[in-house]
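// run 5 | inverse folding | seed 20
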C-alpha cells in the first residue's frame, strides 16, 4: 500500500467513520419518528415490522394539530420562548459589557458565581421558586415560565456573550469616547452591529433551551390550554395505552421550529462560535 493510500485510509478511519456513526445515531431515531407519524395504529401494531409506511397518511397530523389542542401548545411555546430570548439577550449584552469593559471589586467572584450556577440541577430551583411564585400568584401563568427561563438561561449565556465582547477591540470604545459618545451610545451604535454573530448564537441556544423545557412547565402550569409543547406531548401518553403514531406526529411538529431556526442562522451561528473563541 502506497503512502497516499495509507493517508486516505487513515483519514477515512479517523474522520469519516466516526462522523458516519454519529450521524446515524442522530438521524435514525428522527427518521423512525417521521416514518411512524405516517402509519395507522393497526399498521404500527402489526406483527410484521414495516420500516416505511404503506401510504402517506396525514390523519395523525390533523388529529394532533386540530383535536388534541397541539396548535394551542405550539403558540404557547412560541410566545414563552420568544419573550425569554428577548429579555435574556438584553440582560446578557449588558452583563457581558460590564464584565468585559469595567473593573470592579468582586468581578472574578461574580464570574465564578455565574459559572457555578451551571453545576446546579434545575430541580434545585423548583421548590423555592414555586413558593415565591405561589406567594405572588404567578402559578399557572406563562409569566412564571418566562421568569424561570430568564433565571436559568442568563448566567451561561452571559459568559458566552462576554467572550464575544472580549473579541471586540477596546480601541473602538476609546475612539467613540474621544468623539463624545457615552456608554449607551457605544453599546447601541458600535457594539451591537459587531456582536451580531454572537447575538445570533446566544439567541439560538436560549431559544432551544426554552423550547425544550419540560420540568418547569410541568410544575408551574396546571391549566391544559396554557401547556407548552413538551407538556402537551406528555398528555398524549395515556394511563393504559399510547397512540404512538400521533405522538410521533406531535414530536415531528415540535422539531420543525428548531430545525428551521438552525437552517436559517447556521452561517451566523458558526461565525459566532468562531468569534467567541477569540481570546480577549
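// decoded
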Amino acid at each position: 500500500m502506497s503512502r497516499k493510500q495509507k493517508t486516505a485510509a487513515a483519514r477515512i478511519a479517523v474522520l469519516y467513520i466516526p462522523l458516519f456513526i454519529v450521524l446515524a445515531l442522530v438521524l435514525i431515531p428522527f427518521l423512525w419518528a417521521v416514518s411512524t407519524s405516517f402509519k395507522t395504529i393497526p399498521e404500527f401494531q402489526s406483527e410484521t415490522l414495516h420500516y416505511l409506511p404503506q401510504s402517506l397518511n396525514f390523519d395523525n397530523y390533523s388529529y394532533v394539530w386540530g383535536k388534541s389542542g397541539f396548535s394551542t401548545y405550539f403558540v404557547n411555546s412560541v410566545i414563552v420562548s420568544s419573550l425569554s430570548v428577548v429579555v435574556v439577550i438584553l440582560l446578557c449584552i449588558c452583563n457581558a459589557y460590564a464584565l468585559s469593559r469595567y473593573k470592579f471589586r468582586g468581578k472574578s467572584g461574580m464570574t465564578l458565581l455565574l459559572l457555578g450556577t451551571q453545576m446546579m440541577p434545575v430541580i434545585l430551583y423548583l421548590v423555592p421558586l414555586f413558593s415565591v411564585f405561589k406567594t405572588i400568584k404567578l402559578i399557572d401563568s406563562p409569566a412564571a415560565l418566562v421568569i424561570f427561563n430568564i433565571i436559568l438561561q442568563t448566567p451561561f449565556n452571559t459568559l458566552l456573550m462576554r467572550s464575544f465582547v472580549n473579541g471586540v477591540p477596546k480601541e473602538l470604545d476609546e475612539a467613540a469616547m474621544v468623539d463624545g459618545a457615552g456608554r449607551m451610545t457605544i453599546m447601541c451604535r458600535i457594539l451591537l452591529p459587531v456582536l451580531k454573530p454572537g447575538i445570533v448564537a446566544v439567541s439560538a441556544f436560549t431559544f432551544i433551551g426554552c423550547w425544550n423545557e419540560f420540568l418547569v412547565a410541568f410544575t408551574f402550569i396546571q391549566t391544559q390550554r396554557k401547556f407548552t409543547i413538551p407538556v402537551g406531548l406528555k398528555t398524549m401518553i395515556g394511563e393504559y395505552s399510547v397512540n404512538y403514531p400521533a405522538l410521533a406526529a406531535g414530536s415531528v411538529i415540535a422539531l420543525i421550529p428548531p430545525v428551521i431556526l438552525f437552517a436559517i442562522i447556521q452561517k451566523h451561528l458558526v461565525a459566532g462560535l468562531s468569534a467567541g473563541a477569540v481570546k480577549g
